[in-house]
Amino acid sequence: MKNRFFVLLLCIAITFCQGCSTFRYIKEHPYKSLGYTTLGVLIVGAAAAQAYSRSYQSQPTYYYQPPPQPTYYSVPQPSYALQPTQLSKSNYLGKYSSNPYDSQSVSNPYGIYGSQYSSQSINNPYGQYGSPYSSKSVNNPYATDTPKLYSQDGQYLGKVSSNPYDPESISNPYGKYGSKYSLTGVNNPYGQYGSKYSSQSVNNPYTTNAPRIYYGRENE
Predict the structure, then answer these.
(1) Residue 71's Cα: distance from chain center in Å?
(2) Longest alpha-carbon distance in the chain
(3) Alpha carbon 28 to chain centroid distance?
(4) More confident residue, 20 or 145
(5) How far apart are CA 163 and CA 141, in angstroms?
């Protein structure tokens, strides 16, 4: 803006000086070079106008640019699904399986749930879940507060107990969960939880989907 104003002022000054010079020349020589003088004034004026036009065109052009829009990122929501060891008021005690290689199997003597030295193993004769004197033990033939068995899909399969009189015990041959004819019994050699060919059976030595043992879990 300042440069344009300066050029305009310069053009006015040049035109004014040229006009004064022309006026003086005409006064001294009224009939000699009037045409040449007028032509000179026109040339100077045209040059000044062209210079002003160039100075105007040389100014930068400013365009409106909208502010950048904010970027919104989606925050992944945390998963609140409970894992076997996180079930409310329950204790996970491994898989009731005959697979000796599954790390969670009670038949794995080196696993946390199969070792006779683990506090979470039903095979520990001195632990609360394996001692013949504990009210929570699967090896106490009089206990009624023993761990419970659930399939992968949440089906209740009875109590893991050696008590033959408890109606929910898998050791009761006349009970719903101990009979070899029961569809939900682990002692049924033709059922999905007792057959050695079923992927959910406690008697399949190769399965990793055997039923789970929990203590303190409420039936769903």
Answers:
(1) 18
(2) 146
(3) 96
(4) 145
(5) 4
